[in-house]
Amino acid sequence: MSTPVPPPGCPAHGLDPEAITRLHEADDPMALYGKLRAEHGSVAPVFVQGDLPAWLVLGYQENLEVARNPSRFARDPRTWRVQQEGGVPADHPLGPMLTWWPVVNFTDGPTHERLRDAVTDSLQKFGRRGIRRYVDHFANQLIDGFTAKGRADLVEDFAAQLPMLVMTQLVGAPDEHGPLLVEAVRDMLKGTETALASDQHVTTTLQQLVAAKRAHPGHDLTSWLLEHPSKLTEVEVLAHVRVVLVAAYETTANLIANTLRVVLTDRRFRANLSGGQMTLPDALEQVLWDQPPLNTVLGRWAIGDTVLGGRQIQAGDMLLLSLAAGNVDPAIRPDLSDPVHGNRAHLAFSSGAHECPGQDIGRAIADTGIEVLLGRLPDLELAVPETELEWRGTLMSQHLVGLPVTFTPKPARGSGPAAATPAPAAPLPESAVPVAAPPVAAPPAVQERRRPWWRRWFGGR
Prior knowledge:
By secondary structure, the chain is α+β, with helices and mostly antiparallel strands. About 45% of the residues lie in helices and about 10% in strands. It is built from 17 helices and twelve strands.
């Protein structure tokens, strides 16, 4: 298939075909960002999914300028000129992600304020202690599933499951729906042949959840959204529960996996932690700077003709916020080896009116989950050389395919006392079961006992 040639004046005009392809499939996105920055500056013309023109915002200040100026850059995809002109086929891969929904991340102005108030007020009702209680329960439950084996894949067996299990409780879904929703959302985001069926399973399950909570409210996000003074419709409630679930899974699973990889492999962290200079929350913030859970946020659309980073942006042009590129902008981080302890000015959760409202919950899930894991299995070791770790890249993010580890086998201890076990949610009607993801092969067990490095790194004995 030949590479499409954009017309003169199109954002992607003049970009070489190799760079166009690699924007979507880059194995090393940081190298690509550096190449584009060298060629085009802080705002680069690109193709998305091979044929849709857009501007990739690489600069830190330019990212903030777009995110903090909704009067110039809208979040409503219905303002996208290419789509208005019929240039986006109904079956285009980006269609599901750029189709307007009545949700907070696709609205601006008073509508956005109404919806965001409902979401933020409801999320803030969860205290950190209550969230930790759920995380502790499910983290121990997952660890019990592999602790006797002496080996595990911390992506498949832990990071990819913990956030969704916690979030299903926070939205009020029954315990038995958690694992099914985990598999359905993961399958949906992978874009497999069964993605549409999994998407339907998620929608059906959440429709049943909203109906059940309307009849029998509880202490959960779904009930609080239904009861909020903003008076969300059931469609709006469903849409926001879905957004919260998917966003929490995608970002928090990546954050857990990326942080565990760094803890297991990066000597900078070993040295700092052993000297008492960095806590686990500090390590999480460093990862949010160096390897944010999302590379790119889709999208913003120029409301009128404007200038950004010296580029002439036309009304209706699409912009992609490259959070990862902004975080390593030489203008703000000339030396990437310098620590960023206590600095939360990164772009990992974007900025402005659309900054992620659930970021503190994501941090709490990652922080507590990793703490529980390292406390239960203090002698974790990477089972393969770091160079053998594999990544799967998409336009929006880079995912670790697996993180195989070994440790001293221990018997499962269960999930702790009954007082620490989350109360089960009210049962919902039975729904379809999505296709499960294929199992990931685990590395051979290692039986010898090792010195627990984690206690030394985090100041323990």
